[in-house]
């Protein structure tokens, strides 16, 4: 089932697909990467403790278009913005096909390389939303317990195990867009 969900969200392309097929499929996709505060799901009026948030300095010359960022270089998330109950610290629209492919590849590798261990915390600091052919899939990710909660049409449909492989890729994308990260998102 993890393979089916990962395929639906675009994290798996056929290994024999040529570059034109990949471009055609990728051209139909929209992707948003989220920075989440973690912890338990919250109510809309929850206030985030500023001590848990790391504000990265803006980076120049990055491949991410800062004008597409929703964070300090764009618009901050609203005071009550949540994603499936978790507080959103910021988000960025990933417009470059190469960056979307890099994220998909990292998630694929993380699923493939997971060692089978899992914890029970689910304290997510990352999420990826993909919309392909009108179907939206959200992957809310906790690298501390090695789990991805998959949501389709607003409801949780599956849990997938993942290694920490995608974390630095997602952090790089968020940092490049000037989106704040929770301190725990660094994995330290």
Binned strand content: 25-35%
Cα-to-Cα separation, first versus last residue: 31 Å
Low-confidence stretches: 1-5, 12-26, 43-55, 61-78
Compute the gyration radius: what is it?
16 Å
Category from helices, strands and their pairing? alpha+beta
Helicity range: 10-25%
- Average pLDDT, all residues: 75
Summed up, the domain count is: 1
**N to C succession of SSEs:** HHEEEEEHEEEEHE
Write the layout of secondary structure elements.
Elements: H1 2-8, H2 19-27, E1 29-36, E2 53-54, E3 69-70, E4 82-83, E5 86-93, H3 97-112, E6 126-132, E7 135-142, E8 147-152, E9 155-161, H4 166-176, E10 181-182
Antiparallel strand pairs: 1-5, 1-6, 2-10, 3-5, 4-5, 6-7, 7-8, 8-9
Sum this structure up briefly.
Helix content is about 25%, strand content about 30%. The chain is of the alpha+beta class and about 190 residues long. The protein has one domain.
Keywords:
8-stranded antiparallel β-sheet, single chain, globular, 10 strands, about 25% helix, alpha+beta
Describe the overall structure.
By secondary structure, this protein is α+β, with helices and mostly antiparallel strands. It has one domain. The chain has four helices and ten strands; from the N terminus they run H-H-E-E-E-E-E-H-E-E-E-E-H-E. Strands 1, 3, 4, 5, 6, 7, 8 and 9 form an eight-stranded antiparallel β-sheet that branches. Strands 2-10 form a two-stranded antiparallel sheet. A hairpin with a 2-residue loop joins strand 4 and strand 5. It is globular, with a radius of gyration of 16 Å. The N terminus is likely disordered.
């Amino acid at each position: 089932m993890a393979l089916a969900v990962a395929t639906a969200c675009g994290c798996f392309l056929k290994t024999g697909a040529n570059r034109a097929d990949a471009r055609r499929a990728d051209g139909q996709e929209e992707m948003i990467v989220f920075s989440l505060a973690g912890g338990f799901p919250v109510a809309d009026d929850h206030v985030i403790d500023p001590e848990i948030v790391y504000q990265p300095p803006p980076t120049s010359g990055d491949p991410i278009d800062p004008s597409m960022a929703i964070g300090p270089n764009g618009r901050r998330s609203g005071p009550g913005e949540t994603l499936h109950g978790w507080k959103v610290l910021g988000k960025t629209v990933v417009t470059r096909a190469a960056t979307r492919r890099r994220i998909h590849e990292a998630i694929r590798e993380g699923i493939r390389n997971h060692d089978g261990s899992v914890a029970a915390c689910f304290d997510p600091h990352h999420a990826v939303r993909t919309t392909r052919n009108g179907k939206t899939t959200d992957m809310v990710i906790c690298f501390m317990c090695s789990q991805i909660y998959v949501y389709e049409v607003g409801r949780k449909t599956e849990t997938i195990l993942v290694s920490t492989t995608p974390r630095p890729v997602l952090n790089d994308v968020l940092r490049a867009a000037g989106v704040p990260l929770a301190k725990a998102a660094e994995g330290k």
